Amino acid sequence: MAPFLWLVCLSFLLLASGTWSASPRQPVDVAFGRNYVPTWAFDHIKYLNGGSEIQLVLDKYTGTGFQSKGSYLFGHFSMQIKMVPGDSAGTVTAFYLSSNSNEHDEIDFEFLGNRTGQPYILQTNVYTGGKGDKEQRIYLWFDPTKEYHSYSVLWNMYQIVFFVDDVPIRVFKNSKDLGVRFPFNQPMKIYSSLWNADDWATRGGLEKTNWSKAPFLASYKGFHIDGCEESVNSNFCATQGKRWWDQKEFQDLDAHQYRSLSWVRKKYTIYNYCTDRARFPAVPSECKRDRDI
Fold first, then answer.
1. CA distance 101 to 113
2. What pTM, to 2 d.p., does this model score?
């Protein structure tokens, strides 16, 4: 291998491996039915390997989805997902947390399909008090249709961190002191779905879903939940003291993680609402706190 290529590979390996894991414990693979239930189009979910793996099916009649049995206030949540392969234009594979209220909070991963040979786009968003408009979009540094990759959220009182294979791709800090709402008091369920959104998902709706390629399949495993379940007693999580995700080491990224986040921003970010002066002539308050990375 040429010295230059060797250095590039070494740099990538150092970047992708962190001194600080998103969770202090390795996720344990559990069957889908332990923590999740289908929510619609039950016949469009396929169960494999005793339910430790599932596939969501989208055809011209319907997509499908599932949700967690419990609601959670803070924690670490992850899925291993293999995206729809081939011509996936118009399709959206979503993994998100959401509360159930008129002024709901939400933490979103949305994977926007594309024409064959074009890269997937990963869109993230955060809703607070029913208001979103905090989109960021990146290209992934791998083909997400070839094998499983881990997508996870760390959510505590201090920050929300989006991870791809333990590489932080986005941080949303608690900026209540700046007058910015932060998700802190509404328990959320975890959801995932596969659906048709060809009115906006690919090139703003210019690329339509090619139904001759249906059915479209997204595969899942590793249904990891490590959070404070708030489903039974609405004050339970608030009275339990600090959990691991509230400890000091999880209240901010470390220097290595900030370097990884900077790498993602510089090489793979294609849209950031914080820099969109057409939509936001004044820089949103929470963006002013963002590190210059």
1. 29
2. 0.90
